[in-house]
Specification:
heterodimer, A: 333 residues, Rossmann fold, seven-stranded parallel sheet, five-stranded parallel sheet, B: alpha/beta, two-stranded antiparallel sheet, binds flavin-adenine dinucleotide, binds adenosine monophosphate
């Protein structure tokens, strides 16, 4: 049997599909259309929400392949790796796309070794070349270069893409497809690792390194009170909060949120930065950010040189307008 | 406990000097360092050893000069180091790298734990750790932010995920990739430096470990880099000057259009 079709590895929590599952379908759909093959969404979990599975079809999948078992309720390395491996062996997909989440980044590299193929992490671009191979583009060496990578011989061709690096397709309720449940040998569900507890994050400031949306502020915010506008925008946009070294030194945000040379290097899909001058040490941390919007009252501020979109003006006037617009959108939706 | 730590020597990209005019990295004088994220794995190994006894073996695959990286972690507190270095290993992707490291680890006999960094700052994939565990057929997990308890045949660990922290119990032997939150790496001690200078570091090639030639280096790697290009640096973005509320309304409106066009909202 030859390798055929494009697969996406969906992710779920408590039976509900996570947003990334739908984002992946957009990437997968484009590839499947180019290869003129089916797009199959893979789902592992327990007591999966039937409406959610149907939604995978509305959002682009031709088929949904489900493995439902109590052992798959939470993500655990052993059973997840075993089941995905088995599905690949049974059905032989040509391309598999996972998302670069803590789950995807754990399952995919192990599966790649098990099925004896290559895996390209954190791709920013995926396409099909004239010979039908998957072309994978990813930043490397601290974002200093872009590498184009192929997996010429081994199958499936595996790649991960970062969450929130694209939006899902528009929902299309006229789409049809089948949902198939697959039985799996109990032996494969055994685990040498078990989950004892889970502590949910209380504060929604998030980890900036993996964040796809980061809202950052600097000394230009002037006070801790004003810096809270940065935090509010981050919450409204489901992003993480970042700060310049000045903002951290002033105690408005803790050190793990410092961006730059002596802090974190980040590469979000979107970076909104206000009241930061753009010293080289700060810029060193944001080189790989895909889209940068900067707000500063000084037209000469260096931050504007790296911004895709700059607004020169007082952040005390501008940020409230942004906050209001975000709130309006939320209510309107 | 017998602990193996895998470390990688990387160019010091975290400390780049940027050319303010071109916005590119100044490459001259870029030094090689121990992958900063591997120091957390080293520190955790030292902590466990200090509390429970045992030994720590550091292992790296790289060019001959990578023995410097091993000496650095030995000066922090690892007991010994092994350098996997040979022309035939060159150009390996994560599949082949994890294969060679796993085969070398097999030669070290029984062990309780393998610790890796979350990712290397140059390759930046985080795939080698999970790869090693899979080749060795041991269980593993990633993003470990704490070792909570050491039991007879297992470890209780904390793992950081997007929405919070998992507490997991993992059977020995296992492989963990650790994140920054786990500890503060110590600096090398003077005694450690002296020891590291004198210590003999064995160099292993394909002769010393049981490897199949077809799995080595560029030849053995499933993935191929077919092109390298420069990402755009100067962005030539638009600048909206706001002198009054109307300007702000307009600029913010345009900004939301920009966000929509980029699929951010
Ligand atoms: C070895 C070394 C390592 C460093 N590492 C880091 C690092 O990791 N990260 C980092 O960020 N820095 C780092 N720095 C410090 C860096 O050089 C700058 O000092 C720092 O980034 C400045 O922070 P800032 O932009 O918030 O403050 P400032 O430079 O003071 O800039 C404040 C900006 O806010 C603007 N502003 C003021 N009021 C308003 C208003 N009402 N509305 C809009 N805009 C306003 C101003 O025009 C100005 O551009 C490092 C420095 C050294 C020497
Ligand atoms: N050449 C290597 N030698 C030893 N360990 C390595 C090597 N490459 C990667 N590692 C380990 O695997 C981790 C992840 O690396 P990477 O998958 O390259 O991002 C690193 O933090 C190291 O612990």
């Amino acid at each position: 049997m030859s390798y055929k079709n494009v697969w996406t590895l969906s992710e779920q929590e408590q039976g509900k599909l996570k947003e990334v599952s739908f984002e992946l379908l957009k990437r997968g759909r484009a590839l499947a259309d180019k290869r003129k093959v089916e797009l199959v969404a893979i789902v592992l979990g327990h007591n999966l929400d039937k409406d959610d599975l149907q939604k995978l079809i509305y959002f682009g999948a031709d088929k949904v392949l489900v493995v439902d078992a109590p052992e798959l309720e939470y993500f655990l390395t052993d059973p997840y790796v075993n089941v995905v491996t088995k599905l690949i062996e049974n059905h032989k997909p040509e391309i598999l796309i996972a998302s670069a989440t803590t789950t995807g980044r754990t399952v995919a590299p192990a599966v790649a070794i098990k099925v004896n193929t290559g895996l390209t992490a954190d791709c920013t671009g995926l396409d099909i070349d004239d010979e039908g191979h998957l072309i994978q583009t990813r930043p490397a060496i601290g974002g200093n270069i872009l590498a184009t990578i192929k997996t010429p011989i081994h199958r499936p061709q595996m790649a991960s893409v970062r969450p929130h690096s694209n939006q899902p397709l528009d929902i299309d309720k006229s789409r049809t497809g089948e949902i198939v449940y697959e039985e799996i040998d109990k032996e494969l569900l055994k685990s040498r690792i078990k989950r004892i507890e889970f502590h949910e994050n209380e504060e929604e400031t998030g980890n900036i390194q993996d964040a796809e949306v980061i809202i950052a502020g600097g000394k230009g915010c002037k006070t801790e009170e004003k810096f809270k506008m940065i935090k509010e925008i981050a919450t409204l946009m489901h992003g993480a909060v970042g700060g310049s070294r000045e903002a951290v030194d002033l105690g408005w945000i803790s050190y793990p949120h410092q961006i730059g040379l002596s802090g974190q290097t980040v590469s979000p899909h979107f970076y909104l930065v206000a009241g930061v001058s753009g010293a080289v040490q700060h810029l060193a941390g944001i080189k790989t950010a895909e889209n940068i919007v900067a707000i500063n009252n000084d037209s000469e501020a260096q931050i504007f040189q790296v911004a895709d979109f700059g607004i020169q003006g007082d952040l005390n006037d501008i940020l409230p307008v942004i906050i209001n617009k975000l709130k309006e959108r939320k209510e309107g939706k | 406990m017998k602990i193996i730590v895998t470390i990688k020597q990387v160019p010091e990209t975290g400390n780049v000097k940027m050319d303010p005019v071109t916005g590119t990295m100044k490459r001259d004088g870029v030094e090689s360092i121990v992958n900063p994220l591997d120091l957390y794995a080293v520190e955790e190994a030292i902590r466990l050893k200090n509390e429970f006894g045992g030994e720590i073996i550091a292992i790296t695959m790289g060019p001959p000069k990578a023995d410097r990286a091993l000496r650095e972690v030995i000066s922090m507190g690892c007991d010994s180091g092994i350098l996997l270095s040979n022309k035939s290993f060159a150009g390996a992707d994560t599949w082949s790298t994890s294969y060679v490291l796993a085969q070398a680890i097999k030669k070290l006999g029984e062990y309780d734990l393998i610790l890796c960094g979350e990712r290397a700052t140059d390759g930046d994939t985080g795939q080698v750790g999970p790869g090693i565990a899979t080749w060795l057929d041991i269980t593993f997990t990633t993003y470990v932010s704490g070792v909570k308890e050491v039991k007879e045949n297992s470890l209780v660990i904390e793992r950081m995920v997007e929405t919070g922290y998992e507490i997991l119990e993992i059977e020995n032997p296992s492989l963990l990739t650790v994140i920054k939150e786990i500890n503060y790496p110590r600096l090398p001690s003077l005694r450690g430096k002296q020891k590291a200078r004198k210590l003999d570091i064995p160099v292993w090639g394909p002769e010393e470990i049981d490897v199949e030639n077809k799995n080595l280096g560029l030849k053995g790697s499933p993935t191929r880099v077919v092109r390298i290009s420069k990402p755009k640096v100067s962005r030539n973005g638009e600048l909206f000057v706001c002198k009054n509320d109307q300007d702000i309304e307009n600029a913010v409106g345009k900004m939301f259009e920009f966000l929509e066009s980029k699929e951010i909202i």
